[in-house]
Amino acid sequence: MRTDVLDQSRGGMWAWLLQRITAVLLIVGFASHLISTHIMAIGELSYDNIAHRLASGFFVAMDVMLLAAVLYHALNGARMVILDYWLSAKAQRRALSLALWLVGVAAFIYGLWALWPWIKG
User: Fold this and answer.
1) How many domains would you assign to the chain?
2) What does pLDDT average to over the chain?
């Protein structure tokens, strides 16, 4: 494998690999989510119906996994586009990575806060 294709200045091998893994997780997770909420759901989609579904640990775990996968996949994709077209200095690349990690962690904490009534169960 050519190392210049996956070198750190273009994103890095681990970022590339995790981008592919989260893509698969998103496909499987969204398919499962849509099937369980729209095809197999009995009754209307209301707060009470969703709260009842989230009482199951499986759905809370799936929502947390989807939240983490979506955030990583989206922010890493944005990072790759920005690195490809605009930023070339090492300090700029590191600052961008740090800023996106901070945004991702903040968004993940906010998502966990929204699910907290069902997480603490």
Assistant:
1) 1
2) 85
Residue 51 lies in a domain: yes
> Domain for residue 85, yes or no?
yes
> Does residue 1 form part of some domain?
no
Q: What does the pLDDT read at residue 17?
A: 92
Tell me the pTM: 0.81
pLDDT at 64 over 90: yes
Residue with tokens 């775990």: 61
Give the CATH number of the domain where residue 107 resides: 1.20.1300.10
Q: In this predicted structure, which of 34-48, 55-69, 79-93 has the lowest mean pLDDT?
A: 34-48
Evaluate whether residue 48 is within a structural domain. yes
Q: Which long-range contacts (CB under 8 A, 24 or more apart) does 64-70 make?
A: 64/111, 64/112, 64/115, 64/119, 65/25, 65/29, 66/25, 66/26, 66/29, 66/30, 66/33, 67/108, 67/111, 67/112, 67/115, 68/108, 69/22, 69/25, 69/26, 69/29, 70/22, 70/26
Domain interval for residue 92: 8-119
